[in-house]
Automatic annotation (TrEMBL):
<protein>
    <submittedName>
        <fullName>Conjugal transfer protein TraA</fullName>
    </submittedName>
</protein>
<feature type="domain" description="CobQ/CobB/MinD/ParA nucleotide binding">
    <location>
        <begin position="8"/>
        <end position="211"/>
    </location>
</feature>
<dbReference type="InterPro" id="IPR050678">
    <property type="entry name" value="DNA_Partitioning_ATPase"/>
</dbReference>
<dbReference type="Pfam" id="PF01656">
    <property type="entry name" value="CbiA"/>
</dbReference>
<dbReference type="InterPro" id="IPR002586">
    <property type="entry name" value="CobQ/CobB/MinD/ParA_Nub-bd_dom"/>
</dbReference>
<dbReference type="InterPro" id="IPR027417">
    <property type="entry name" value="P-loop_NTPase"/>
</dbReference>
Length: 251
């Protein structure tokens, strides 16, 4: 008997908040470090940036003895291949998830939705997920757009009781610890009044999330084939976010 697969959409109406990066980071953490079977659906049509990223990572490994050995050691340790990434139009993501579930045994399928998601087909995809994870940054323009869209979708989900969507989960990212907390504090209050869940974990502003696998260096953080190295994981907020989400997503 197959397990119940949790379907999660990562989305925000505004771009530049790190949706795709967090999709990759969380998928890698759960698949390689926590023993979960994970798949990712990349809805960045037609570029499919996450599909292309995995292709780049694989080419890098092919041309590096160091990364080849790292992959062999990882396979011997966890006895599983890299997680699956498939491309799909956003409005077809639920069908893509069902196809994955039919052909595999997944604990978690993460759908990375594009920045422009304000269409009936995409909204239908979102409300047919189990959860929505929304990264947000303390910026008034971003927050106004995020709240307007999320409220619309959540009201629709509540009005249609047969939809699977259980919760919107917001978390703060790219937060500069030296900056004023005025916007941060104000929107936390607003989110709570709107009955949205705000995670305790806050991802700090750090450039380590931009470090991809490369032949020029062994230092990487964002990767589709390996989890983030322990030395860079510390202080990134990723482990704390992933562990908090384990509980929220009932994994």
């Amino acid at each position: 008997m197959k397990k119940d697969t949790v379907l999660v959409a990562v989305c925000n109406q505004k771009g530049g908040v790190g949706k795709s990066t967090m999709t990759i980071m969380l998928a890698g953490y759960y698949h390689y470090l926590k023993g979960l079977n994970v798949a990712v659906i990349d809805c960045d049509y037609p570029q499919y940036s996450l599909v292309r990223m995995k292709e780049r990572d694989m080419r890098t490994v092919e041309h590096s003895e160091y990364f080849k050995q790292l992959m062999v050691s990882q396979y011997e340790r966890i006895n599983k291949k890299a997680y699956t990434i498939v491309g799909s139009k956003a409005e077809n993501a639920r069908d893509a998830a069902e196809k994955l579930k039919k052909n595999g045994d997944y604990d978690l399928i993460v759908v990375d939705l594009p920045g422009t998601v304000n269409s009936s087909g995409v909204i239908n995809t979102i409300v047919n997920m189990d959860y929505v994870i929304t990264p947000i940054i303390p910026d008034r323009i971003v927050m106004q757009s995020s709240l307007s869209f999320s409220t619309t979708v959540w009201d629709y989900a509540k009005a249609n009781k047969d939809t699977p969507l259980q919760k919107f989960l917001f978390f703060w990212t790219r937060k500069d610890t030296r900056a004023s907390t005025e916007v941060f504090d104000a929107y936390n209050i607003i989110l709570q009044k709107l009955e949205f869940t705000v995670l305790d974990t806050v991802i700090p502003e750090t450039n380590r999330y931009n470090k991809e696998l490369s032949l020029a260096t062994r230092n990487y953080f964002r990767c589709t084939l390996f989890p983030p190295p322990a030395k860079l994981l510390k202080g990134s907020g990723l482990a704390e976010l992933a562990e908090e989400l384990l509980t929220k997503l009932k994994l």
